[in-house]
Structure formats: C-alpha cells, structure tokens
Amino acid sequence: MWHNRSAEDVISSLNGSLQGLSAQEAARRFEQYGPNALEEKKGRSPVTMLLNQFRDFLILVLLGAALLSGVVGDWKDSIAIFVIVCANAVIGFIQEYRAEQAMAALKSIAAPTATVLRDGVQTTVASSELVPGDIVLLEAGRLVPADLRLIESAQMRVDESMLTGESLPVDKTAGDVIREQASIGDRKNMAFKGTIVTYGRGSGVVVATGMQTEIGKIAGLLQENEAGMTPLQKRLKALGKQVAVVVLIVCAIVFGVGIMKGESIVPMFLTAVSLAVAAIPEALPAVLTITLALGAKRLARVQALMRRLAAVETLGSVTYICTDKTGTLTMNRMKVEMLWHDGSVLELPGSVPDVSGAATDVRVQFWLALALSNDADIGADGVLLGDPTETALLSAAEGAGVSKQQVQRQYPRVAEVPFDSDRKCMTTIHRLQDGTYLAFTKGAVDMLIERSKSIAGGRGIAAAELMEQADRMARDGMRVLAFAVRRLDELPEKLLPETVETDLVLLGLVGLIDPPRPEAAEAVQTCIAAGIRPVMITGDHPLTAMAIARRIGILGEAEDRASGHVLTGTDLAEMTDPVFSRRVPDIKVYARVAPEQKLRIVKALQAAGQYVAMTGDGVNDAPALKRADIGIAMGITGTDVAKESAQMVLLDDNFATIVKTVREGRKIYDNIRKFIQFNITTNVSQVSLIFLAPFLGLPVPIQPIHILWINLITDGFPALALSAERAEARIMERPPRRPDESIFAGSMPYYIVLVGLFMAGIVLLVQEWGIRSGMHNWQTMVFVILALAQLANVFAVRTETESVFTRGVFSNRPLVYAVVGTFILQLATVYVPFLNPVFDTSPLTLPELAFSIAAASMVFFLLEFIKLMRRMYP
Predict the structure, then answer these.
(1) CATH number of this structure's domain 335-513
(2) Any catalytic annotation for residue 324?
C-alpha cells in the first residue's frame, strides 16, 4: 500500500525521481497504462447511428406501406419512397454525427490540466496524460488529477468530501507513514484523484491513474463536462410529442375523408403516413444540438469556453453581469498615471536627459527615486520583473530616459531599511560620486509628511496642500505614494528608521492606477443599451472602485455611497436580508467585498427576478459561480475549482468578451427560432394543403413521394444553413428575453399559421385553376410551387424585421449555396427524363416554370411586406 511506505521508497519502486520522468519515459508509460481517465460509456458507432434512423415507428410504418404498395403492383412509388427515406436517414445521420463530433471537440477543449515535472522542467499537460511516476505540483484551488503519494506539503488541506463524505478539509502531511489498514480518510500522506486542494501547496508522485484510482474503483464521476439535454432541447422534445398527436389525428382524418371521396386505400394510406413522417418535427432536438455545439465552438474562437451546452442557449436571458474589477474591467497591470512635484503635474512620459545633478536637483532626484528606491529589475528579454507597483515605477523612470542599469552603476545602493506595515515606507541609501549619500524613502503620504522637514521646490508648498492633492488623486482611483530624500554625509552607525527616515525633503507624489481596458467602456455601454446591468464587485477600496466605475460608465458622476449606488462589504455584513433585498436593484458597485459575500449578492438578485452572470477566479468564488445562472470563471487567473464550478470559462479574463458572448448567445437563440419557424411553417403548409383539399372537392394535390421529397429539402441543408446567419443589426438594443419565455414567443405562432395557410392557399388556387383549364401537368406545377415556396420562405425568415435586401441577399453564403443546389435538384425532378416516372412529373414549359417561380415568390414578398409594416409600426 502506497500510504504505508515513505515517499522516497515509493518513487524508487516506480523507477522515478524527484526531477520527474523524461518525456520519452512518460510516453512509454502512457502506452503501457493508457490515459488517466475514468471509463465512460462508449459513443455510438457511425453504423449504429445510421441504423437508428430507421427505428422511428412512423418510418417503419411508411416502409411497410411502401412494400405493400409494391406488392399490389406499384413498384415505382415503392422504390422511390424507399430511396427518399434512405436519403432522409442519411441527413439525420449526418446531423447526429456532427452533433456528437462537435460535443467531443468541446469536451477536449475543456479537458483539465495538471502541472508536472518532466525532464526536471515544470510544465503543464492534460490530466489524461499523467502516468505513474510523474511528479505533480499542487496548489490551492487545483483539482488533484490522479492518486498521489505526497512528497511535500506546506500547510496543505484537501477537500475529500466527494470521496469520503467528510465535510471539512483534511490536513495533509507528506512525511508520515500511515498504518496499512488505515481508511481512505485517514491516509494523510495521500491525495486522491478528483479531490480539491483548498489551502496551501504541495507535490506528489502519481501512484495510480484512471480506473486504478480510488474514485475509479468505485466508478465515481466528478463534475462531468456535459450532462443530458438542455432545457430548450427538453421543451422541443415535448413539443414534438404534442405536435405528433395533432398530426396523427389530422392524418387519420385525411385518410378517412380520402376513402369517403373514393380514393384507393393504399395510396391514401401512403399519403397519410408520408404526411405524418414529414410533419412531425423529430429532427428538431438533433438540429438544436448542432446549432448549440457549433455556437459554442464559435464562442471559443472569441475566447469564451462553454463548459455546459445549456449556457449557450441561456446567454440571451442575462439581465445582470456581476464582474470583478481587476483584470476583467482593468488591465491588471499597474502604471504611473500622474507625477506631482512642486505644485504641478509632470508630463508623462517625462524626459531626464542628464542624471548627473543628483546631488542638488530635486526634480532629478524625484526621477532617480522611482528607479533606485525600487526592487524591480529588467530581465534579459527586456521584460520588467518584480512587484506590479515597482515595475510600474521603473517603467515610468525608464520611459523618461532614466536607465536603472546606468544609475545603479552611477549611484550604487549601499544599504536599505526594508518596508514594514507599521511605518508604511521603505528606504534605500545610495553613494554619490563625492562620497556622500542620498537616502530615498517611498511610502504612504501621511507617514512621509510626518517625517519631512520641508517639501521640495521653490513654490513653498504647504503640507495641507500636498495632502489635498493626494486626496484628489485617490478620489480619481489612484494609489498614491510619496517620495522623499535626505542627504547624508556618512552612513549612520546603526541603520534604523529613526536615524534615516527623519528630516526628509518630500520630493512629490506618484499616482498609480490599474487602468481600465480600452474596450471596457464601450462594452459597458453595449450592456446598458441591451438592458443588462453591469455591476462591479471588488475587494478594492471604495474610492478606487468608484473612480474606475465612473471611467467606464458603470457609475454616474453623482452616484456614490451616499446615493445608495455603492456598497461596501462592511455595510453588506451589517445589513439584514430584507433591507438588502430592497436596496439591491440600485447598487452598481460593491467594494471591499469578500468572495463569500458574492453568493449573497447572487441570491438577492435572483430573488428579485434577475438572471445573473457572475465572474470569479478563486476557490471561495465557487459557491457563487455555481448558484449564478451563468457562472463565469477566469481562464488566466482562475483556479481549477472556479473553472469546474462555472458554466463558462473566460480565456482572456476580459469583460468585453462576456458582452461578445451575450451577443453571440442572442444570435444563436434567434437562429434556432428561425429554424423552428421555417421548419414548422413548412409542416403547416403541407398538412393544411392535404387536409383542406378534400373538403374543397379537390383531389389530393401531391403524392407521397412529393411530400417526402419536400421534407428532404426543408430538413436538409437550407434549414441548417440558417445557423450561419449573422446577428440582426439591433440585437444588442433590445431587452433580454425571460428564461421561461416560450420558443414561440412574440409573433411566431401567427407567422407560422399565416404563412403556412398562405402557401397552401396559393397551391390550392393553382390546383383549382389547372384542373378547370384542363392542364395535364397541374400536379407537377403544384409540386414545384410548394417546393420553391419553401426556398422563398427560408430566404425571408433570415430576419425578423430587417429587409433581406438591406441585409444583403448573398450575405449568408452557405444558405445561398444550399438554396441554389436545392433549386437545381428540384428542376431535375421535372426536366431529367428518367426522374419523371419516379416523381410522376412532366416537363413544364418556360411560361409554366416562370409562373410557378412567380407564385412561389409571393411568399417572399408577403413576408417582406410584413417586415416593412413592423418597421413602420413597431
């Protein structure tokens, strides 16, 4: 047992080392042990997928009816129906296969990673690539990727609740050797796959992977990346069943009325079953899966990884985006915003051509202090290394021509008094060329004023004026540091703060800021225009939070704590739930908030009926991310726990990307609605046509093979190409949709009924006219008009209110190609001689074809007219 042996013994028995495995050895072991993954249910094979297309009851009934038709002598219809059913099965197979492949691709993108030592170098690999003997590094917020015998643990605690049921994190001690009979919960020197490091750090050697791990042995699964059907898929599946009942009743009536009118039993049965097969929207869930999965892949290209497919469809419902400030709204990179010296603001970037006046020139001393009273450095590749504040100061100095390497040689550091939190300052001492010294002190403004005898410059600035300037800078969101200098003739015997940091000359103030991302303000305005309230949640000081919020438009100039638009974590802790519930709609900025308080904010907003997106990156953010309607983890700074708890991972940690995903989510949902609208309108037109014809004293207008052919066209590539339609121009100027809103909300039901009946009406009028005029090929014309009407409809359904001519007829190229291809195939059924007997068609004359195209085009122009009315009378 691994826990009953020392770490050194375990590594030795695995033929490993503290430097990790070599890449070659890791590859060899991967071949031996296989991937570090729990066994999952195997996906269906392509052959199984294809055969499943024929399991539908109605398809089997149709094939049986076609066989019966062949037995009674009509082999032409029998063979044609079989061919078209097979073609439909191929399209269904393609849809399901694409959906499964798209989901597999998303799952691979979302695969968890682990930090390991390979060839003695720290590197990141997919967790599935771990092998026994690998050395894995752990830190707070990481998932344990395999079963490990710990080598090192520094105050490390692990949440093993998913494995042992123990609710409290367990302290881990790498050095212990545990008795062999110890339970899993008592094995303090082990870390198990799927558990979570909640505190501290450590390292361990992999002793078991995949199904050999403890969690593998009990076949447990931790937080699967994709679970079941999305809410919309479930609603559509239920809808399909409801529609099926209605359609079957209608088909039974059609069959009965046809028999009463003297039609033959077998052809009428074929017609009824063909209509049922065509009209029941059984393909909707599969097409929806494709649309959502492909949408998720597009979102990945804009730096947003969707870990739950359901999140794609619900993005359009977001009413609140609760976002962190640092790194999401800001650059997460400090920079010097302002230098204040002798009553005036120094220009940035400054210019210091000569640093030789360090002994007497206070302005030169100010610039030198930025570079010399600084522990940041410049790497070999020119990248600044060190604390963010100090790298910002050094960057400003370098930008002014003060080279740290040069001034360090010229004025070398000989001593220092380190920073401590009581003094709130630090001092470095540098030797001048004449043998005297300059002591540069930087720190909090109030502390340096107390230690200064004067303020540099010729304007005689008073301490009160300097403090007022510091307050102004703080209100503008800057972190303010003061710099001071003291000339020393010799080094004091005891280098103490009281001997060095007194009688200073205050050189000036430096204001630093983590600047807003350039695109943040525009993204905030886009949110507001879209009816989405952006809310900042930060651990920063209220003044800093308010300043950034004002810069990017979250907070108005007159909005602050007094107006009730800003709340601190302390205020929130003291506030009762009823009071907070009343105030939460007005709060735009939360400052000095602890991660644990995010959950309370989410709950309050949800209780107020809001649909909340929440960002987070730490372990303590996980409850809020899980509770939010859409939890958004940071991809760069986020912990594994945050990412596992979220529905979406922001790969660039950028607020503007969240807004892009909301826009994309709205577009995806719109395109799903367009597909459904198009598909069901076609079904309504066919059902209406065949249902009404007998009651009007007309024969059944189209044959079973025509119904199935049109179904092949409408469920085929033109419909799928709607998913490539770009967003409507004002998609981010309308309010969010309600999460419980029906997919048929708005005018869609009226559209479906109106356009479906309009198509059926055109066809019935042409049929009546053809029969009365003695036209021998009226059925061919009816067939062509009904098929082309679907193509006219698919072009018109691309937009809800915008004219297709404004958008661009050819702007959706996949749709154009699909429509042109379908049109050519439709003409082939009429003009290719060997297909005429198959479809029971005859060639149309040029005027007849032109008439058919014109009749079908009426659908397009009717819909364009409706859009015009909607634009004129919104």
Answers:
(1) 3.40.1110.10
(2) yes
